[in-house]
Amino acid sequence: MVIRHNVTRSTELLEPVVYSLSDHGKNKVNPPRPFEAIELGDVDRPLVNHDLPDLPDISEVEVVRHYTRLSRLNYAIDLGMYPLGSCTMKYNPKISEKVAAKIGNIHPGDTEAMQTILGLLSNLEAHLEEICGMDACTLWPAAGAHGELTGMMIIKKAMVERGEDRREVLIPDTAHGTNPASCTIAGFKAVKVPSGDKGYLEASTLRKLINEDVAALMITNPNTLGIFEQDIAEISELLHENGSYLYMDGANMNALMGIARPGEMGVDCMHLNLHKTFASPHGGGGPGSGPVLVKDELAPYLPMPWIVKDEEERFRLLTNAPQSIGMIHSGLGNLSVLMKTLSYISSLGGKGIREAAEVSVLIANYMKKCLKDSYYLPYDTPTLHEFVLTDKYQKERGVTTMDIAKALMDFGFHPPTVYFPLVVTGAMMIEPTETEPLDEIERFIDAMKQIDELSRKDPGAFSSIPRATPVSRVDEVWAARRLVLTWDMVESIMGEPPSK
């Protein structure tokens, strides 16, 4: 196997926790003592801690080297392509980091001191409404699933205001995995709807399932197969005739922005994943932002506070909206992500946003075309920004999707999303994004083809892959049965800090 310059390889040894590096006397810095004793007043004596905190005794240079070594054990979009399907791991412009850093010293509670920030947020709301073709927006949800829950709570409140107790939310089997959980937490019953042979929800299927107990349909568009929901206009008509709402999971909006607007497809409520589509770092679980956009009918139920202007044209935070679902987040949401989004939109403009979507679709389709002879393509339907392959051919040789994902790490790439969506056996969901240079795309294609070739010539080699990463092949069954949660547990098992 040919391995290019490998960004995942860094060191032969894993890094211990910082406390393991501690030794009495290493830290020569003494904190200043007060000139006179400070009276604690009426503080309960049991609450007073007379002992120093248990901080590691370690020098500054060791702290810096420790965390630098840890960073080298990790993987990031700044090191190489990160083709996680439905995650849109695009490059994050560094200018957005500078913009977001400027807001840190603004007091979050005084609207008079926040006029600029409130103006920027109001501007962002308008941009998102324009991009999505919706009428109103809340920026406060902290992530995509939080946005889903907020949207479902809005629909629930609308049903209550209408005097109806509809219980069901229909969810296609190609939707994102958090959709059923979000509607369940909001008090609905999730009902799975099968997609058609071409990989999208057919209106004829919905027509058979819709009834007077259906509150909404949650649809991901494009769906997790990367396929556009071609019947969405007819689907929205069926729902509206039934008094139901159409909710769209907008996590895959990177394929549509500047090209198609959900509001014009009949969508009543949707969320965006700003950290995905609008380029904010989100590897490792955060931070995120999942604004919810609605049509006018649902606007009264948006969470508070609302950004409004008073009679003097000053921005205010309205906290008295009788029909609102209430507050869903403290402060002003994940403000740094919101500012990075505004920076991204302002930098690209309408033309640039459309071009980004077009290029993301072009790259994904080029990659699919190059790989479909080596890997099985379960649906021949045209796809947009991502696509799904499977291990059907390789499995006949004893090589699985997990083996392929592990092998990609030896080529210096993060693996794609694996075994999802669940409608495809052995799925590999690949989303390259528009920010990848052509030579990186070609390297990924070449790596996938070499892995396929290895599965033909030496399928047994996969049992010890990856070899070029800080941690090699993991015994996943053993790991699942015997949880090792602390460094002390690692040392007790290994006898010493573990090496590669």
Overall description:
By secondary structure, this protein is α/β, with parallel strands linked by helices. The relative contact order is 0.15. The chain has helices spanning 60-72, 94-101, 115-132, 144-161, 179-185, 203-209, 232-241, 274-277, 335-371, 392-395, 401-410, 438-457, 476-481, 487-494; strands spanning 136-138, 168-172, 189-193, 214-220, 245-250, 269-272, 292-294, 306-309, 315-318, 387-390, 417-418, 427-430. The chain is globular and about 75 Å long. A seven-stranded mixed beta sheet has the order 1-7-6-5-4-2-3, sandwiched between helices. A three-stranded antiparallel beta sheet has the order 10-12-11, covered by helices on one side. A two-stranded antiparallel sheet has the order 8-9. The chain has a domain at 94-346: Type I PLP-dependent aspartate aminotransferase-like (Major domain) (Aspartate Aminotransferase, domain 2), CATH 3.40.640. The two termini are 20 Å apart. It contains 14 helices and twelve strands.
